[in-house]
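Re: [help] complex structure
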Amino acid sequence: MNELLLDIVFLLAAAVLVVPLTQKVGLGSVLGYLIAGLAIGPHGFKFITATESIAQVSELGVVFLLFIIGLELDPKRLWKLRIPIFGMGLAQVLLVCALTTGLGLLCGLSWPTGVIVGLGFAMSSTAISTQILKERGMLASAGGSSAFSILLFQDIAVIPILALLPWLAGAPQPTNAQPAWKIVLVVAFVIFAGHYLMRHVFRLVASAHLREVFTALSLLMVVGLAALMQSLGVSMALGAFLGGVLLATSEYRHAIETDIEPFKGLLLGLFFMAVGMSVDIPTIFLHPEVVLGLVVSVIVLKIVAHALLALVFRLGRKEIPFFSLVLSQVGEFAFVLFAAATGLGLLSAEMGAELSAAIAISMAVTPLLMAIYDRFIAPRLARSHDMSHEVMVNEHPEVLIAGFGRVGQIIGRLLYANRIRATVLDHDPDQIELVRRFGFKVYYGDATRLDLLESAGAGTAKILVVAVDDSDASLLIVDLAQQHFPHLRIVVRARNVAHVYDLMDRKVEIWERETFDSSLRLGTEVLRMLGWAPYQAVRAGFKFRKHNLKLLFEMASKRGNQRELVSVTKQAREDLEKMFAGEGEQLRRDDEGWVIHPEGR
Amino acid sequence: MEKKSFSTLLIVAHPYLEKSRANRAVVQAVQDVPRITVRRLYDLYPYFNLDVAAEQELLLRHDLIVMQHPLYWYSMPALLKLWVDEVLQSGWAYGPGGDQLRGKQFLLSITAGGAKQGYSPEGSNRFDMETLLSPWNQTVHLCHMKWHTPKILHASIHASAEQLQAHALDVRQALIHFAREGSLP
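Output below.
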């Protein structure tokens, strides 16, 4: 146990010390984790020597990442992207593989070895590339989504490639993979369960109102799926991705994402540290020119291949540099492939080690390449102002509505009828269930949580409607919004006068007392029934409203002193009396001033 | 043989009809005109939320349209103006394909606070009534309706009860004539 604790301490310490440094210097967090891992690993200062277990746990980082990606995906969009995925993706793998095999033959490698190396080299790092794309918000651009489609295809391709290996080795070897029919059955079950069962399970857990249990369920889903897929010999990450996609349309999406995100962050960091630890320094220094040569040639080869692809698939000249660079590294799946290949005798142990080193170094190079892109290439492209990258999907709502009760629903429906799709948050699963049946997209979540507001899009939205029924929660949300999203315009449902005063203190400008106008309408009807002409009754209502509001503001400025002395209820009664007295007076005065138009006009 | 009778739609637009003497007198007087529909605009739409479809439907169903209103600032009360703006739509009342009101009769019946003499180039209002009512005139013309000489009650503020009654009965008489003959006297 001591060993494990010590390992954890070293890992955390390394992360905490190194990553902020590399981030500050502009080299990004990924490189920081890689360096941290290298430093504390068996080839560095040897703080950690048993890397096996760490590597296994760190794989979960990629799993979680893919889960979140699946969660944020729109299945419709996935289907829409089937051409880039199977068109461009396939082309990329084949092209890189072909080029590498050709190069390998020139260097005297056998063609099976060349193909293996080529397939491995074709893989790009999902973790690194997606991180880069997400950081820059480029997932929706033409280049970004093409890159992502290629990565998706690579994920899918790993399975047949692994199956291909024994055939290349020339002898039938037992593999980990289960028979195909079993896999299909399990995947079908997962899809069925995900679509029909999970929603009810989540709702059940959510209605217990115990947040940590909900978090546990989310984690259980991800890790459980990963375990299931691993037992079938299928890529864990792909299974997690599938799970994420299944939940992408669920109302619990934002809440799950919010819960999983911190785990993903840490585990992914751990993954990169594990990669850093695996960089075999002695081997590199044995034949430094081999490893260096591999790194240079694979990166150059991939950049060229990708640039060719970009031209053929007509991505647009602006997109070519970024697209070619972002996928230029060799990915984590290559580790898996080369390990399997070495096990089958297709690669010598020495070669396997050199390749692994090359992979790790190529990963480390990517952030540097990105830095070069940012400093030299991007400014040049930005100069000629061409909005050629169309944003494919608008994930960012203009309006957030917190609370979908009677008030939120009216607002939501008004917007909906005018084709404005607000993102709605509510924390009552039964309410959500009810409303969903009428076709509304409501997300489960507690809007007083900053991270939930963040993941629902508060950072990019224009307007936040606070329509929750609890005034304390309402004020909390207002505070959070003003503090963290100062650009957001806030519209608030006010429970009562006390709530209004609290909102005024916070300089909220747009609020409405939830029952005021409806009550006034009813009162106007009563006047009508008593014989008033309708227009008179309505105008009386307008007058009342105007003076009421004026009194409200007057009392707001005066209340500070008296509140300490008088109890709240007494104050409220006094306020009301004042209001009536003030109102009667005003109306009489106005009544006299109002007369039918004098002669001649 | 039963003679065909003609229908009348009378729209009265007065924000305080219960406080009015002249306009109320007319509205009360025409209650027994055959096939008349009286609509009090400010009662129907106190929030100014016109139901355009309903208004158009009513127009279609009647042969004579009568507008009864006080002259406010040489024009009509605001709600009636909104009615004109929103109900008389292009493609429905006027313009290409706007034929729905063609052939209908239109009678303007107004009350004015000022005396008749004031409504002349030499008078305090500087313009005569015909000029001041030309917007209505042209509106009716553009909607392919037949414009009739307006019924005008002058000096409504100081008019005596008898004078008001006389004017109201005059309007009533004209409408009864229309109901029978399909034309105005």
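Chain A touches chain B through twelve residues (CB under 8 Å).
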